[in-house]
Write a structure and sequence with these properties.
411 residues; alpha/beta
């Protein structure tokens, strides 16, 4: 599943900085019609909406209609979880439409002595039970990609993978710092396969529709939608400070956390961990993964309109730094890994830099320099960035920095 098949496009992958094409960086502060934006008011009234609209119609796809939580059910709760260190809740959200039902479960750990906690919210790849050894965490029955190292066969999650991803989730550090952690298995919202008969898409088709239209949502937008609805739930949960929810995601789920926060201003902060192509990095650099490659290998992630730009990045009137700009003025953290050249760390860094001019409109600071910091030397501002040693992953180092940044800029 993560192994690259050798298509001719892949053999053309560029990892040479001197071969990055020169291109004009689309200006976040000039409208498509050429008007210069000089105030927050104009940004919010004119420019931000047209950019959001462009990403909706041509990149991630728009959601056909709003669908609210039909009901929520606290499946399980324990005030003395993790050896008495945390409160645990497992909350199932249910949605209904077109005679169909979809449910997904939020696993929530909360620090015990805080009345209303700020929370990191992020999806996991292989089930809530993989992020912790905690035996009480329920195992999802949703479809999963087969994976030998997680002992997933027949697309079914089992007890055998409990705790297999604890390395990516610094649960104790998060709780000790006074934050809650909420996670959802992304396959419950939309199974990660090129099949639009299942997942949340199927609840919102019009009569006789069986797949999204050209400008309608792919899977990333569907997963983002799931995060937004989780935020709706947090507004009802007395233990959560819904005004301090940080969307977090790694890789494809980092693309997701960015899009969720771009579409919903209630997210108080955003973390993009190694999100790469179609996430934080700049498409026009064509470094590492390119649009043609991502749309070929994962045809269901973006909307069909995005294919317009396969091997045609020059034609894009936007680039991903403008997605980051949609987060302004909220705190944003973009993180890369040295060995994750596929995700183009330099492109992720530059993107954070180019988005910073929108933060300046709000008198906030971001990535002021165009010189990339050394590995393991983070730049912390309202817009933060680091590149750490190691590979495509989420590590304790990443979490330690996210917590420091959240303490300074979100909490
Ligand atoms: C890769 C994909 C990346 C990234 C990654 C992941 O195969 O090319 O864009 O999303 O998967 O999600 O782990």
């Amino acid at each position: 599943f993560f192994i690259l098949s050798m298509s001719p496009l892949l053999s053309q992958t560029n990892y040479d900085e001197s071969k990055v094409p020169s291109f004009e960086v689309p200006d976040p502060l000039t409208t498509f019609k050429g008007k210069k934006i000089k105030s927050v008011k104009k940004w919010e009234k004119a420019r931000r909406p047209e950019l959001l609209h462009f990403f909706e119609n041509n990149v991630y796809g728009k959601i056909p209609k709003t669908l609210k939580i039909d009901s929520y059910n606290i499946l399980e709760q324990d005030d003395n979880a993790l050896n008495g260190k945390a409160k645990r809740k497992q909350v199932e959200l249910t949605f209904k439409n077109n005679g169909k039902t979809l449910s997904y479960t939020i696993l929530l750990y909360l620090p015990k002595n805080i009345a209303k906690a700020a929370v990191f919210l992020g999806y996991n790849f292989y089930g809530n039970h993989t992020i912790t050894e905690d035996k009480a965490v329920l195992i999802s029955s949703a479809w999963a990609n087969n994976n030998e190292s997680f002992q997933i066969e027949n697309n079914t999650l089992t007890e055998e993978s409990r705790g297999k991803r604890t390395n990516r989730w610094a649960v104790e550090k998060i709780l000790e710092a006074g934050y809650g952690l909420a996670t959802i298995y992304y396959g419950e919202v939309d199974p990660d396969k090129n099949d639009f008969s299942d997942g949340i898409h199927s609840l919102l088709y019009q009569q006789d529709q069986s797949r999204p239209k050209l400008d309608e949502w792919g899977s990333i937008a569907a997963w983002s939608w799931g995060m937004v609805r989780a935020l709706d739930y947090f507004e009802k949960d007395p233990d959560v400070d819904a005004s301090k929810v940080i969307s977090f995601g790694h890789s494809r789920l980092g693309k997701t956390s960015l899009w969720a926060a771009a579409t919903d201003k209630r997210f108080a902060g955003v973390i993009s961990n190694n999100s790469g192509c179609g996430g934080a990095t700049m498409s026009k650099r064509k470094f590492g993964e390119t649009l043609a490659v991502i749309n070929d290998r994962f045809p269901h992630w973006f909307c069909d309109n995005f294919n317009e730009y396969n091997e045609n990045e020059e034609a894009l009137p936007v680039d991903q730094h403008q997605l980051l700009a949609l987060i302004a003025p909220r705190p944003l953290y973009v993180a890369s890994a040295e060995e994750d050249q596929w995700a183009d760390p330099r492109g992720e860094f530059l993107s954070a830099h180019y988005a910073t001019q929108v933060y300046h409109l709000y008198d906030m600071e971001g990535i002021e320099t165009m010189e990339m910091p050394k590995v393991n030397e983070p730049i912390h501002n309202t817009v933060s960035y680091h590149i750490r040693t190691g590979k495509h992953d989420v590590t304790d180092y990443d979490w330690e920095n996210y917590i420091r940044w959240a303490n300074a800029f979100v909490k």
